[in-house]
Specification:
Helix content is about 80%, strand content about 0%.
């Protein structure tokens, strides 16, 4: 495979920064929901940050298409290291991290996340030949989810102080004081620094000729929108197939902490175990989804995975069994990752690298709008009362079910699309 060393350095940097990010993503919601008992406040913070990312995501695509993807990664890691390092330092000086700074750290993590993945996939497409698209997307998924699994286990270990209900207690029999938020943020900052060094080592020869676009943001955005407007079936596909990912983010960053704490009445170890099982399902999907659906059209395979996702959301809504919750996490990891591998490979084949960033911005903007609507809804006090959070799972399952409709409508056109050269 061309640029093999560069690709594996990219995977390594992604793993290093993703490990600590995964810990923070578990720690911050749990801190607001279970330590501060302010789930509604966290919902408001999450909704505001998500709303701001709507405008940010529109700009992200133009950045990805205009500038060197390597330089974007370097800039992201510098920003993450400086911000998280400063928040950690203030936390050590004060003895604790103020709520406002925790919100800032969370916001910066989300902003970096919104730039990181569009850049990651565009970079992977840029340095890889067409016949390897499926392979690199599977590798990115497996690597990312393996990191997520490890960070989930480590999060439970740090937040619980090696408590008795830690999933791997038999393997790691250590007890200590649970880590503070400033210690977690310091770990996060240090991994950004290490990822920066790994990215700095990347050298590659682009597989595709890409002429960075000049002009204003609106002008560049119009190019992506114009490309998609000429291909309504592709536009509908890009938006509708985001449905599982939309619900995943809302569920993982907000609903899950409330569900485990208020509905299941369990601790952070159950939350982390759920994250680990989700990652395990995603790893299986990354390894085998292309093999399982090898002889099936990608759109049909995605529709099947979306039906399965609807079913598991409904199952989780009508149970109080922790084992059902674990099964939900495992299957959601499989369906989301499987859909993502199939979706991204499909888009790589039909959207040229020259406009992939801007087209992605259009898709991501609709994703953010839908997340804002759900987060605003689930931030209402009703959903954090008793077991009412289960209605959130029912609503998300119904949303995925409805998103199948445009895929069925445009199925014929999507099957006849011509691949971009």
């Amino acid at each position: 495979m061309k640029n093999k060393k560069a690709f594996y350095l990219l995977l390594s940097a992604n793993a290093v920064s993703g490990f600590a990010q995964g810990i923070s993503i578990i720690a911050i919601p749990w801190h607001f929901v279970s330590v501060l008992n302010k789930s509604s406040l966290y919902g408001v913070i999450f909704a505001v940050i998500t709303f701001i990312t709507l405008f940010w995501s529109l700009y992200v695509g133009t950045l990805v298409d205009k500038y060197s993807r390597k330089k974007i990664f370097l800039s992201l890691n510098v920003a993450g290291c400086l911000t998280l390092g400063t928040v950690a330092a203030i936390g050590f000086a004060l003895g604790q991290v103020p709520e406002l700074l925790i919100a800032l750290a969370f916001g910066v993590t989300i902003f970096i996340f919104n730039v990181h993945y569009p850049t990651l996939y565009a970079f992977g497409q840029e340095i890889t030949s067409k016949e390897n698209y499926g392979k690199i997307n599977s590798l990115l998924e497996v690597q990312g989810q393996t990191t997520s699994m490890l960070s989930g286990a480590f999060a439970a270990f740090l937040l619980g102080g090696g408590a008795d209900d830690f999933p791997l207690k038999r393997l790691i029999n250590i007890e200590f004081e649970p880590w503070s938020m400033q210690e977690i943020f310091l770990l996060d900052a240090s991994t950004y620094a290490l990822a920066f060094l790994l990215i700095l080592m990347i050298k590659y020869v682009p597989d595709k000729t890409r002429i960075p676009k000049t002009g204003g943001i609106l002008e560049r955005l119009k190019t992506g929108l114009k490309f998609l407007k000429k291909r309504p079936a592709l536009l509908s596909f890009g938006i509708a197939t985001y449905a599982i990912f939309v619900t995943l983010l809302v569920q993982a960053y907000f609903l899950m902490s409330v569900y485990v704490s208020h509905h299941l009445d369990k601790g952070p170890s159950v939350l982390a175990m759920g994250e680990m099982l989700y990652a395990g399902g995603a790893i299986v999907a990354g390894l085998f989804v292309r093999l399982v659906f090898k002889h099936m059209k990608p759109v049909l395979a995605i529709i099947i995975l979306m039906f399965i996702t609807t079913g598991i959301y409904y199952a989780c809504a009508f149970t109080m069994e922790t084992t059902i919750f674990y099964g939900f996490c495992l299957v959601l990891g499989l369906t989301n990752a499987g859909t993502r591998v199939l979706r991204i490979t499909f888009l790589f084949n039909y959207i040229p690298n020259q406009v992939i960033g801007r087209a992605g911005s259009i898709f991501n903007s609709t994703n953010i709008l839908m997340r804002i609507a759900f987060i605003s809804l689930f931030s209402l006090p009703f959903f954090s009362t008793g077991s009412n959070i289960t209605w959130g799972y029912f609503i998300l399952g119904t949303f995925v079910l409805v998103a199948i409709i445009p895929l069925v409508i445009f199925y014929g056109q999507l099957s006849k699309l011509k691949k971009e050269e």
